[in-house]
Amino acid sequence: MEVLSEIGRWFVIGTAGLYLFSLVAGAFAIFVDWLRREPEPHDDSIRFAAEQYRIYHGADALSVIGEHTMAASFAPDGRHKRFLRRVTTELMREEGIIEGQLSHSAASKK
Fold first, then answer.
1. Are residues 63 and 25 in contact, defined by beta-carbon separation less than 8 angstroms?
2. Going by C-beta distance under 8 Å and a sequence separation of 6 or more, which residues neighbour residue 82?
3. What are 1-48's pLDDT values in tens digits?
């Protein structure tokens, strides 16, 4: 009977160890991902991208960037789609469809 209790004790200790290891490994993976994350693009990058879309695609720039935004929906994270949304906003601002500042500038000044 003592053998079974000793086996059970080691089983519980091993299971708890694996559980603790998985928690620590998951926290480490999240931390590494956080360290590797690049900052959001600055307003100058947004304006430059909008200008490049306008130069290359002309009057069709908004429809082309809309297609690119739809394609960016399949990216593993939403950073590319957010970037394209900001470029779309800048293109619309330049065409006079909307007014105001870039959303990143307004948020960073608060």
1. no
2. 40
3. 788 899 999 999 999 999 999 999 999 999 998 888 878 888 899 999
Position 79: which residue type?
R
Q: Are 82 and 104 in contact, with CB atoms under 8 Å apart?
A: no
What's the longest Cα–Cα distance across the chain?
Answer: 83
* Three-state secondary structure readout of the chain: CHHHHHHHHHHHHHHHHHHHHHHHHHHHHHHHHHHHCCCCCCHHHHHHHHHHHHHHHHHHHHHHHHHHHHHHHHCCCCHHHHHHHHHHHHHHHHCCCCCCCCHHHHHHCC
